[in-house]
């Protein structure tokens, strides 16, 4: 009865198909906003909304308008799956409107200081004080929000050093953040502590938290099944094994890139950037590097 009520509640609060807002029921007590910059999971309660990720600051009006049309209630809590500003850029305006922002401790540390992203050759300035998470956790955290039990698990050195898997127990949903890019080559942020080894371990953790009915929400791309997540994990492992073998044979980055170890997967995005990040996870470090 609880699940039936939850689905009915979500459906009653969502806009009709004729409206432009891309908010839809996800499962049980959860809904999904397919935003311009990332996927946002929404958990409603009588008092307000919990958001998992909040897009860029420039997407705030889009996010807020879609939420207003769907729920007619304030955002009272925001969770950041990691520090990148396409997921945490809305912290400031949501906090200014009264929301509490929560994240893993490394997210607050990275948002508090300038971050250089060598992939884009860009220095990201520190976020303003209002945009910093006011509540942090280290390894795990759990609490109730409305009718949902929300669990947070830190997966270390995966996409970054501050990634959180968010599990909604009753809805049977896991928001992966950018630990999972569905249909795209992964981006491993080496500057922020990411690694191919940690990424594979994080996927193993998520697979262990899920079953055949779990809805898997990636940071980018369509909602997936556990089987699709397992296939993604197998792809990572295959490419990692290939690159590790070539590194052991003494091949340099140019040679590894030229061998196109990920080309057969036909994913969107930057294949060479992904392979270079995998290479960095296995290449010996030179003294002083």
Task: Describe how the helices and strands are arranged.
Layout: H1 2-13, E1 23-27, E2 30-34, E3 39-44, E4 49-52, H2 60-71, E5 75-79, H3 85-88, H4 91-96, E6 100-104, H5 105-111, E7 115-117, E8 122-124, E9 135-137, E10 140-145, E11 148-155, E12 163-168, E13 173-175, H6 196-209, E14 215-217, H7 226-248, H8 253-258, H9 271-282
Parallel strand pairs: 4-5, 5-6, 6-9, 13-14
Antiparallel strand pairs: 1-2, 2-3, 3-4, 7-8, 10-11, 11-12, 12-13
Helix pairs in contact: 6-7, 7-9
Average pLDDT figure: 92
Number of domains: 1
Top CATH class? Alpha Beta
Main pleated-sheet profile: 7 strands, mixed
The termini sit apart by 59 Å
Radius of gyration: 19 Å
- How much of the sequence lies in strands comes to 15-25%
Q: What structural class results from the helix and strand content?
A: alpha/beta
CATH topology: Metallo-beta-lactamase, Chain A
CATH homologous superfamily assignment: Ribonuclease Z/Hydroxyacylglutathione hydrolase-like
Helix content: 25-40%
Low-confidence stretches: 1-21
Second rung of CATH, namely the architecture:
4-Layer Sandwich
The backbone outline, from C-alpha atoms, is globular
Series of H and E elements: HEEEEHEHHEHEEEEEEEHEHHH
In spatial order, strands of the major sheet run 1-2-3-4-5-6-9
If helices are DSSP runs of H or I spanning 4 or more residues, what is the number of helices?
Answer: 9
């Amino acid at each position: 009865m609880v699940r039936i009520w939850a689905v009915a509640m979500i459906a009653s609060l969502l806009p009709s198909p004729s409206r432009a807002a891309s908010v839809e029921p996800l499962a049980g007590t959860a809904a999904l906003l397919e935003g311009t910059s990332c996927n946002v999971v929404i958990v409603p309660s009588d008092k307000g909304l919990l958001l998992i990720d909040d897009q860029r600051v420039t997407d705030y009006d889009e996010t807020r308008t879609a939420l207003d049309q769907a729920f007619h209630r304030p955002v009272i809590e925001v969770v950041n799956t990691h520090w990148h500003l396409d997921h945490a850029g809305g912290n400031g305006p949501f906090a200014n409107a009264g929301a509490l922002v929560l994240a893993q401790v490394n997210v607050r540390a990275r948002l508090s200081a300038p971050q250089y992203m060598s992939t884009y050759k860009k220095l990201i300035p520190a976020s303003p004080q209002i945009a910093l998470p006011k509540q942090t956790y280290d390894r795990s955290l759990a609490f109730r929000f409305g009718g949902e039990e929300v669990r947070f698990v830190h997966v270390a050195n995966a996409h970054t050093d501050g990634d959180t898997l968010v599990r909604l127990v009753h809805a049977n949903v896991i928001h992966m953040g950018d630990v999972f890019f569905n249909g795209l080559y992964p981006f491993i942020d080496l500057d922020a502590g990411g690694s191919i080894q940690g990424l594979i371990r994080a996927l193993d953790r998520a697979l262990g938290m899920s079953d055949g009915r779990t809805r898997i929400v990636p940071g980018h791309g369509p909602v997936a099944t556990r089987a699709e997540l397992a296939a993604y994990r197998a792809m990572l492992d295959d490419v990692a094994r290939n690159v590790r073998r070539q590194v052991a044979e003494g091949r340099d980055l140019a040679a590894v890139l030229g061998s196109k170890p990920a080309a057969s997967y036909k994913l969107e995005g930057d294949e060479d950037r992904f392979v270079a990040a995998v290479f960095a996870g296995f290449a010996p470090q030179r003294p002083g590097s």
